[in-house]
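Subgroup meeting minutes
Present: P.N., E.W., G.H.
Scribe: E.W.

1. P.N. recapped why we're keeping a running log of single-chain structure predictions: easier to compare across weeks, and new members can see raw inputs and outputs side by side.
2. G.H. added today's entry (296 aa).
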Amino acid sequence: MLLVGCGSSGSGIDAGQLTDALPDVALAAVPDASASVDNGSTSDVRDPFDPSQVDAGVGGPPPALTTNVTIHIAGDSTAAIFPATDPRVGWGAVLGNDFGPGVTVHDAAQSGRSSKSFIDEGFWSAVKTTIKPGDYVFIEFGHNDEKFGDTARYTIPNTSYRYYLKTYIAETRALGGFAVLLTSIARRQFSGATVPDSHAAYTAAVLAVGAETGTPVIDLQAKTNAWLTTLGSAASAPYFAPGDTTHLNYLGAVAVAAMVVQGIRELGFPLVQRVIDPVDGGVAGEAGAAGETGSD
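Output recorded in log:
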């Protein structure tokens, strides 16, 4: 049974039910991995990023706590550490404040990277050298994968994006780590009183890969979308860097880190035993209430 952390109940969602529930429209416009690709010289070239080529296996239960556990974060700028003079703050940069002794957060997220470029530029290889059995690896990509036309970063949701997600999962498991997928945080882009999911097909792909591989998912898209919708456009602005609808500031990073901790609770990870309460001095209540609404 796959668990998806997106509300307060922490209830399990059967993998088959989850796959059936994925929105057809989100994946209808992207090429199927088994489809032939016309490269100008042949009409029968298989997609080189067929996700079925990656055997990630099927995940088991979260590991028992060891004396020292590390949470590694592979992701983009929404989770990254920035210089102190930069108003942007990723949620991963403050996640360690939510835990007591025995948990270390290794925030390896990199600004501007996609699931593809994080590997191509060697960042993932560096992370792998630090993963030890019993560690957690949190994987959140999507914002830069969506940059159509950028050959260094763009991935196709239904093929190459899934291929790379499964690669992270397979290689994490091979090292004895425990992989956790996270959907991308919502952009603060309102349409009236609502916040459309600008990640649509990528959100669906994360959930599909989680279901296929038995990898738990913290649905940050659903949590942050509900949080922003509850706050509204004006009241949510103080949680983001000035003039920015993507990047959080310190207050926003603390709120989203609280949502990550909420997801850890919902999924029943032993890590919860080392969470400090309250995790953020009060913001968690507001963030958590918003996160109870909505899920893909």
